[in-house]
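Why run this: before we spend reagent on co-expression, it is cheaper to look at a predicted model of the complex and decide which construct boundaries make sense. The entries below are exactly what would go into the expression plan.
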Amino acid sequence: MKPEEIRSLFPALTQTVYGKPLVYLDNAATAQRPASVLEKERALASTANANIHRAVHKLAVDATEEYERTRDIVKDFLNAGSREEIVFTSGTTMSINLVASCFGEAFVQEGDEIIVSVAEHHSNIVPWQLLCQRKKATLKVLDIDEFGGLQVDTLEKMISQRTKIIAISHISNVLGLVNPVREIIRIAHGHDIPVLVDGAQGSIHEEVDVQEMDCDFYAFSGHKVYGATGTGVLYGKKKWLDAMPPYMGGGEMIETVRFSGTTFAPVPGKFEAGTQNFNAVPTLQEALRLARQFQQDPEVAQNEWAITHYLMETLSADSRIRMVGVPRGTQVKIPLFSFSVEGVHHEDLALILDKMGVAVRSGQMCAEPLMDRCGVTGMLRASFAPYNTLEEAETFVKCLNKAISMLI
Amino acid sequence: MTLEEKKQAVIEEFSMYDEWLDKYEYLIELGKALEAYPEEEKTEDKLIKGCQSRVWLDYELKDGKLYFRADSDAIITKGIISLLISVYSGRTPEEIAADDFGFVNEIGLRENLSPTRANGLVSMIETIKNAAREAAVIPSEAMESPDSHVGQRPPQNDNAQVLSAEDVAALQPLYADVILALKQVYDPEIPVNIYDLGLIYELNIDKERKVSIVMTFTAPNCPMADEVMHEVEDSVKRVPGVTGCHIELTFEPVWDRSMLSEEARVDLGLDYEEDDYGKLS
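The model came back. Tokens follow.
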């Protein structure tokens, strides 16, 4: 599909802001939703609104079927081994917190070590820091090189007898580079260490096959792949999920409750306590279908390549601009560009671009350690989706130049 | 230029720009023109919390007047702080402490800057106000003792004392009408009108029949504050004979239940005994 055709599926993209056509380039924060997804949520709320897994009446049965069918679709989307390995959460953040909490409870002791990279989103740093505080464990940090690539060759040396888990992003939300997760997993598994992959960005751009990747956990958010907000997925290998204690206590996650002791439901129910987001989760059916369709569409790939090529050329030719996340060799760069402009504050740029109708992200992008590592207080980020056109990329550059000239 | 004249000048300056980009251009110019701030004084204690970009603000009291200087790493923010300084620097602390900073809304700054920016703007204004309060020569016991502040800022209809007896007599019917208008405005949280709640600290009508009101809210940071103030203004302006309405917001003294009118006490089902205790809370 051509980007123009894809655009027509997304109602939010037709609007104007401040009298100018909206150029939405903050897709890494949240993607816009197609009409089919919006309609699905509305339809469920108006016809099949009943709490799932409990009552025997028609509405409850319909709602439960929609919810559980989504689990099968997610299983296929990730090519997981079984549907029991798919846990619904509220998003990537909750998925990672769940693992940090429950895996940590079962397997991390005082003096143990956990490895993350310096390029992680706060969501893949803070849960591990909290765990380390709780268990008196140590957080070790894998560094990046000057181009933004992970220094995977140093990983082997960082691993010790005490390393219990490695948590790494599939694609950094700032650098836009696809990380060599297979290599990291291979190294980690050589020491029997499980790996959690933060797939918040990876799930959009890559056709993820968790069995082939052999990751132990994979986390992503629904709203970044065109689904409803408040939906998320945790894939976990069954052997780990079985060995982990429940996350929250409550309804649905139990088998029998006695005051002498409670037994828990088998996975994934064990991790889905309380009322689930049953109107929103089924939007993933359509959202993931579209996401996969875009991932496999050569026209989408061609458009993304054109945008990436154009922006890499244009931005790196500008001596005022310092870009992070430059691909080397065969490394893949997604259409996500973070950069700082010499002598200009990122927030001034974002404010002016906003008034020109261009929505970009400014600031630390929830990755303060990475900003420190790059020696900046923040950056500007433009992230593209399959519905963004090359013309929009050109508009972005034009507006950026105008904004810079206003500020210098 | 008086504070009012200066504010009016800024409002007029801004009204010349229809386009937001032009307003930004103007702010950028102001930012660039701001007097240099010494690098070594960019210390943590001068840093304003709540700004996405960093803002340092310092002040000194000279000959009874406050002088501000500031810097920011973002130029539009620097332009905004420069604008605030141009309006408030060189004024007495009392003048600044009594100001409502409402002109910031009139030039559209608060609404049109991104929410994180708006928070930063609020923090900047708070810092300027705090500086003024600290420097102001208001006797501290007057602010602390619940009895003495009644004398300083008399609640409700005692306010007539600022006018001469003849004025009061002439304006008396208008006062009654304005109070009636104020009673039409209800607190968003409590089912009692703002007048009987005791939110009106001062009500003055000058000879030109312009109404000025000093009011408060039951809690600072009331999210409905702007709306309620607009409602008050609308309601008062609709009173026949009123030529204008100026509202000033204050949180000194802090509102408490002792300020409720008898009517409000009945409405809320509070008896006197309970209220005597409640006063302290």
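Chain B touches chain A at residues 20-21, 24-25, 28, 52-54, 73-77, 113-114, 117 (CB under 8 Å). The beta strands of chain B are 55-62, 65-72, 200-205, 210-215, 244-249. Bring this page to Monday's planning discussion.
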